[in-house]
Design brief:
Layout: E1 4-15, E2 18-29, E3 33-37, H1 44-52, E4 59-64, E5 67-68, E6 79-82, H2 94-105, H3 110-123, H4 139-151, E7 157-161, H5 169-186, E8 189-194, H6 197-203, E9 206-211, E10 214-220, H7 221-226, H8 231-236, E11 240-250, E12 255-259, E13 264-267, E14 276-282, E15 286-289, E16 299-309, E17 314-321, E18 324-330, E19 341-346, E20 352-355
Helix pairs in contact: 2-3, 2-4, 3-4
Magnesium ion (MG) is lined by residues 44-45.
Length: 356
Amino acid sequence: MNKFVIETRNLCKKYQNTPAVTNINLQIESGEFISILGPSGSGKTTLLRMLAGLEESDSGQILLADNDITNIAPYKRPINMVFQNYALFPHMNVFDNIAFGLKIKRELTQSKIKDVVLNALNLVKLSGYDNRYPHQLSGGQQQRVAIARAIVNEPLVLLLDEPLSALDQQIRDEMKDELIYLQKQLNMTFIMVTHDQNDALSLSKRIAIINNGILEQFASASQIYDKPETKFIAKFIGNTNLLTGQIIEKSANELIVEVNTGIKLVVNQSNFKSQLISLSIRLEKVTLNLKQIADSKNQFPATIIRSQYQGGYTVYSLKLNESTIIKAIDTSSANYQIDSQIWLSINPTDIIVFED
Ligand SMILES: Nc1ncnc2c1ncn2[C@@H]1O[C@H](COP(=O)(O)OP(=O)(O)OP(=O)(O)O)[C@@H](O)[C@H]1O
Ligand SMILES: [Mg+2]
């Protein structure tokens, strides 16, 4: 028995000759909340539609709890999808929208359907709205109806395409809490597509990062953030200083890298074949001090050239030499002034290295 509720094997899809999804291998466990995150046009919706059976794959397989469903019709898959534009039936009230799929199936009595629909409305916090029509609902409420409609069939997997993107910030935050609540309550596998990294980091247990149709990493939020496997991910997630340079010295566990802008950095890594590498240093890993600290590696005098107060923290731009500018986040209340001289240091273990 496969422990994965959904598994894709080398899934591929091209539109005309343009690849949209290339060799995607995903293994998703039952009851997980997964995000698929990537820039616009990276293939997220295409992948979701392939899982739902709304898009045919060119090659590869989709397995659902051990069964090959690659060529099974969408309505025969225990997978439902909530579309980005909600796709509610405008001429039906909320009750009928949610009951639609159940009525077509003809498996339940009228009174059982009523129970199931009212229970779903309660779950999405819309009790009492059953007689309204979609145009009488706010965007957030329409979204909830779309979710209720998708869960009444008790699918094994719920696919959500950008469920939060049309909502304003406050409703978005509420909806996030409710998605987490719903997912736990239903103990259903949720696969959510988003291009918002904050939504992905805060909602899901694991995140699949897709770029140009290719799965670059599928890991927990903290692994994605702290140990990005590709340069694209380091740039795409969070804020980082990205530098390029070459290795000029190697020891058993350290590299000395000459950055193209003229500074030298010690990095706690080894085993790099190529001499040319890129370095990623998260803004919050750059430490600022008024004085030089004894025995600290990667320590440089710098001038503050820009300061942006963000409430709770400040982002500083620091000039190390004519062509090296490093950004740092400082959460202390130090309030360094523009043009002041300070020291910055970067722990060698906090530098992430990519081979170019
Ligand atoms: N029906 C189609 N015919 C031709 N090309 C398509 C079709 N649907 C998608 N594409 C192309 O496939 C690629 C992936 O599109 P997709 O909609 O999956 O991206 P996405 O990651 O969902 O983007 P967004 O964040 O903007 O929704 C894009 O280059 C897109 O132009
Ligand atoms: Mg999309």
